[in-house]
Write a structure and sequence with these properties.
Oligomer: single chain
Distance between the termini: 49 Å
CATH topology: Replication Fork Single-Stranded DNA Binding Protein
Radius of gyration: 22 Å
Number of domains: 1
Shape: elongated
Helix content: 25-40%
Amino acid sequence: MTGYNVNAIREKMLKLNGGNKKSGSDKEKIKLTWWKPKLGMSEIRFLPYDDGNGQPFQEIAYYTSKKLSENRVVAPYQWEMPDPVQELLSKLRKNRQDDATWKLMKQLQARESYYAPIVVRGEEDKGVQIWEMSQKVVNQIYSKLAHPDYAEEYLFDEKEGFDFTVTATDSGREFNGFPIKELAIEVRRKSSPLAKTQKERDEILASVPDLKEYFKSYTPGEERMNDMVVNFLSGDGGTDEGTEVSDEESDDDRVDSANSKISAAFDDL
């Protein structure tokens, strides 16, 4: 079997709108169990998942500029919801005339993370866990899936798939005070079932959450997004954590000019 379509019918998780508002039924949001690689070796099993576009992981776009929000924000445009940030960027692309404007546009660009439902060997009692992965990690995994040795096999198959070994080492670098790990991912040499019995496998697959609906439920509504854009425009337009703006590129005159262009673009929205 090839492809990455779901092999079992998943239980329908509750569906929430994208406005971050409680529904009249007062239902709870989906709760996830998160996993992060620890230093050393871990054995995991990726579970069958289809993001709707034939990909085995759920890709989520975030706005990460602290000038918009202290915490990263799920980008509404990916659900075809109103997104003032994207509207502003679209206007700015038509009038990108200097470096300062480019730097401010860069702060508004969305960045992607990827999410995989997994079972961690030795932690099966925790059920399905979710691993948030960077593009670098995903590229490692995709290189295994596309390798000639495995291209004709479905590595995530519940019966004849493969476990993966994740080896985490200390890179010696830090980000925001936390050590950065280097990850190496390898496919185990022999295939194995996800669980011993078909009943156990079915129960695991049925508990895989709808990650798209989960993240959609945390997407800000248009009013909140508008507030964030207004706050961004009222800032000083200087450097922002996570962007590549050097001190010598933050000349006040150039930034003021770029802010004027942004404000004009926003007025047209």
